[in-house]
Write a structure and sequence with these properties.
Blueprint: E1 9-13, H1 16-26, E2 30-32, E3 41-45, E4 56-60, H2 67-73, E5 90-93, H3 97-106, E6 111-116, E7 121-127, E8 133-139, H4 140-145
Parallel strand pairs: 1-4, 5-8
Antiparallel strand pairs: 2-3, 3-4, 6-7, 7-8
Length: 149
């Protein structure tokens, strides 16, 4: 048996609310079920299905009671909680390019766009509040219909 799909990715952040706003308001994920761990966080889902375990797990830091997180996932200095480290970026297949571009502009978030030669993909890159690069891949036809290619 091989790997079938990305299960989820997790981001540890000192600003849980900023991450919640970015992933729900800008990217359009939905906050859903999360087990009662002994540390703050949110699980984010695509659509209404909660059969999986969410796509993005945001791990918050409780500065008044950090032990639950330390016990479960280990300790990381807060200064290290930026960027993607060895992971360059996280990518999602997407649609609704016009709406996403509007949300990014409305949120005043800088982003870059490019076409992938020979793959029929139009890419949008944006950084989340923890400085993790998010890649959104749209059909090139969708970009062409907006006059972007």
């Amino acid at each position: 048996m091989g790997i079938r799909k990305l299960g989820h990715y997790s981001i540890r952040t000192p600003d849980l609310d900023a991450s919640r706003r970015f992933y729900t308001t800008v990217l359009g994920f939905r906050e859903g079920f999360r087990p009662p761990f002994d540390f703050p966080g949110i699980w984010l889902y695509q659509g209404e299905d909660e059969a999986d375990f969410g796509v993005v797990h945001i791990i918050g830091i409780d500065r008044n009671n950090p032990q639950g997180l330390k016990d479960y996932l280990g300790d990381k200095p807060e200064a290290e909680l930026t960027g993607t480290g060895a992971v360059d970026h996280v990518a999602f297949l997407a649609d609704g390019l016009a709406g996403m571009r509007k949300r990014l502009h409305d949120a005043d978030l800088p982003f870059t766009e490019r076409i992938v030669p020979s793959l029929g993909l139009y890419q949008v890159f944006v950084k989340d509040p923890s400085n993790v690069t998010i890649e959104l891949n749209y059909p090139a036809d969708e970009a062409r219909s907006l006059g972007l290619s």
